[in-house]
Amino acid sequence: QQQIILQERPNGMPDERTFQFKEVEVGEPKENEVLLKTLYISVDPYMRGRMSDGPSYVEPFQVGEPLNGGVVAQVVDSASDQLNKGDIVRGNLAFQEYHIVEASSLSKVDTNGLNPSTALGILGMPGLTAYFGMMHIGKPQEGETVVVSGAAGAVGQVAGQLAKKAGARVIGIVGSKEKAAYITDTLGYDAAVEYKEGNLSSQLKAACPNGIDVYYENVGGEISDAVWPLLNTFARVPVCGAISSYNLKEGEEDIGLRVQSFLIKSRVLMQGFIVGDFSKHFKEAYKFLAQGVSSGELKFEETIKEGFQAIPDAFLGLFSGENIGKQLVKVADG
Ligand code: NDP
Fold first, then answer.
1. Is the Cβ–Cβ distance between 28 and 266 less than 8 Å?
2. 204, 219, 246, 278: residue to mutate for ligand 1 pocket, most atoms within 8 A of CB
């Protein structure tokens, strides 16, 4: 069975030298352990930060050690009374095809007729992130204008729909025509702005004639520089991510528009957050999202690459915008 390790820390965009596949043995489960077969692996933008060794809110990956992150797997052998053969579980696990782990480190996934992949997307970390950023920090009100960047991605697709549900007018910033059609036709966004078409400032101004009350920030950089001048009095800015800066080379700086004067003039509240900050409220958020999905009110997409070997490609595709909705790698059938 295979695992994927961090071969070398990248400087700038990761490439083939960053990753290496390795054959490893898998043993037998001892008491309280289970043997798992990986079904889906989640590739996420934050993994890029872990490939560098600077201080952050998650431990960096170690060179020569396997990457790890969100995995959905099936129990194929159990020496624990907590889990049975056939159960589907989610865990933060090494990226490999089979695992032996303590049952207590896993959470059982109740698929409710849905594909288990949803436990890594809309009913997993990205869905929760959208929920807390939008509902606890953005707090959209009826009639307000909400802008979401990275609007067709795993987090963005949920964030925009939550703002719609709250009665706001919602505009999404995306990188392609296909994504623009997805967010307006399927997700119900009121308008889409394509940043690769150029003239972002004037496109955004035209799409937001009443200014912007909530800006759900996923990307940073020049895209967000076009947002700051349009922020209304008492606007809220949940700062969820800044993907445009994740692959800067050593010594390159993320310099943009100076934002302070806009924040002061409009008394804007800008707050960075990490989804884990809200762990006390995970249950209520899961329930809310699961109800939305089962009633059909919350829509979502997944982009799935097949095979363990597709991990580097799937990960790098996040930075060229290949994915619509949550990017996953399917490793095996359940
Ligand atoms: P996405 O599914 O949104 O995938 C990334 C998308 O970002 C791409 O599809 C692409 O869409 C866009 N993108 C890539 N490079 C750039 C760039 N240079 N400039 C502008 N857009 C770019 O990922 P997630 O939904 O998983 O994550 C979205 C953001 O949320 C990330 O910044 C991530 O780090 C952050 N995050 C934060 C969490 C937290 O706890 N704070 C938790 C989870 C995610 P397009 O084609 O539109 O350019």
1. no
2. 219
**Minimal CA–CA distance to 247: which of 52, 17, 12, 48?**
12
Q: Is the CB of 148 under 6 A from ligand 1?
A: no
Q: Which atom in ligand 1 lies closest to the alpha carbon of residue 273?
A: 41
Q: What pLDDT, on a 0 to 100 scale, did the predictor assign at position 55?
A: 83
The atom number, within ligand 1, closest to the CA of 176 reads 46
Whether residue 84 has pLDDT greater than 90: yes
Report, at the CATH architecture level, how domain 2-121+300-330 is classified. Answer: Alpha-Beta Complex (3.90)
**137-168 residue pLDDT tens:** 999 999 999 999 999 999 999 999 999 999 99
In ligand 1, the atom with minimum distance to the C-alpha of 154 is 25
Domain ranges of the chain: 2-121+300-330, 125-277
User: Do the domains at 2-121+300-330 and 125-277 have one common CATH topology?
Assistant: no
Report phi then psi at 41, rounded to 5: -120, 135
- Judged against a pLDDT cut of 90, whether residue 83 lies above it is answered with yes
d(CA 325, CA 123): 13
Distance 244 CA to ligand 1 centre (A): 8
CB atoms within 10 A of CB 83: 20
- Give per-residue pLDDT as tens, 230-262: 999 999 999 999 999 999 999 998 988 999 999
Interface predicted TM-score (ipTM):
0.99
Q: Which CATH superfamily is domain 125-277 in?
A: NAD(P)-binding Rossmann-like Domain (3.40.50.720)
**CA of residue 260 to ligand 1 center, whole Å:** 24
